[in-house]
Design a protein that fits this description.
6-stranded mixed beta sheet; 19 strands; Beta-Lactamase; 4 domains; elongated; single chain; Udp-n-acetylmuramoylalanyl-d-glutamate--2,6- Diaminopimelate Ligase, Chain: A, domain 1; alpha+beta; 558 residues
Amino acid sequence: MNPTVACDAPGREDAPLMTKSIKPTRSTEPTEPTESDQPSVPLSVLLADPALDLRQIAGPPARDHRISTVGTTEIEDPSPYLVGGELLLTAGVRLPADAAGIDTYVRRVVGAGVTALGFGVVPVHDEVPPELVAACDRHGLPLLRLPPATPFVAVGQATYAAIAEVRNRELREISRAQSALAGAAARPDALRAVLTQLSGHTGAWAVLHDARGHELFSAGPRPAPPTPERVRDLAVRTIARGRTGAAGRSVPTAAADHRGGTHLTVHTLPGADGTATALALGQAAATAPTLVHRQVTSTAAVLLALLTSPRHALGTDTHSAGALVRLMLGAAPADVAASLAPADTTEAAGHWVVIHGRHASPRSAQGDDPAQLATLGTALGTPYLYIDGSELKALVASAPDARPEVPAQAADLGWVLGFSTPAPASDLARADVRAGRALQRAIAAQVPAVVHTRDPLTVHGIVPSTDARELARTRFAPLDGATSPGAPVLLDTLRTWLTLHGSWDRTAAALHVHRNTVRHRLARIAELLDVDLHDPGVRMELWFALHWLPDEDQDRSG
């Protein structure tokens, strides 16, 4: 008969169900061992159980040692029958009699991965042999003394009860995190909300990258350089390997780089056909990912994949399809606008923002990449967008008085955008023209985006002088609080610049200052007045207001 190692273990039929995580594939990235998925408890939990009355008498502190199973053996060399992580119990029936034999015994079980050794006193040994205590100290193996009143079975029962509690606690934590992620996925800013929940439940910085390494969204405290750059490079390499994998071979779904006390992980988002997409979820943390963290990350990756899929982000729903049919059959835009507006934006009352865009690359492939197209649509907050090469047009439902929000992700993807002000569906043609003009101003000014401004203090005709002066005072009142050089200098600079038709060099020469000083002053004026000085209409209104401004107001100190 072959000698065996008896191990207590919970039955499979009682094991709790777990959500399957994304399985990391083998990677060439430098890695460190991560925590095993095998449930375990710290050895300190068993030492703290008064019913067991265990006492550690040798080896290092128990706080960092984890027990995943309990085994009982009385053979001279149990190492071939061990799997690692055991609390190995023995009464010393076949324990070698000499110190050298005991040292060999301890060295073998340590090499097999045993976490701790439990020695039961009586009836074989009245006390733990001192040679065993010395050997455990020498090899760094925690040694526990089991009193005569503590059966080996009781130790096993207590261990598996503690493991079950740990697993139940992990399941509750995973369930809470999954509920929070599902709720975040239903929000208007779903991508950012999902990343925020992921970061909160894992304690890691979370970031979504595209294949070019652009940072689309991120959440959590941003780590110091060069960690963000390392995450980006790892994401780009992982996506590239997925795209170039040989036919019939599984593509990488995850990679890790654990160096210098920082743990980096990257998961490519799964596509509809089971292969990796052109997006990757990256994480950076100060601690190794636990089982809970990996499960939560797996759920987040699936949700992010759904949120960036063309079917979700581009709104292939029946309401949109019905509106398209009505438009093709002759209905006016105002008649179908209500069908296009999201259900939770009833306050929009049929108002829309028109967006024009141009990509930095003349032959952009954005429109050919469903994941990139879906990501841009999600960033803009609309399913209604059309990309033709490097040109973009989009519609965003909006409240009548809302100011359009410019997503940083669009600039990160290489787009320059022009936004109209909210307009009713019946006025979309004019809004389209305003968006086009805003885009041209953004391109001319070399800025990521320009929002068309609508100033309520316009002058459309001759007005009484009293009203004109009040209009001018009100128009330039925000300059009253300007710091050095003060309101008079700013007003003089604005007047000179308008007189010289917006020439930076001629204005600088007339004022005897550097052209950068002129730019700085005018940028300050635009900020304080909340205007776009590239808009000819704004320049005209400011010109009238300057002429109507009373002399005493022009001479007031800043």
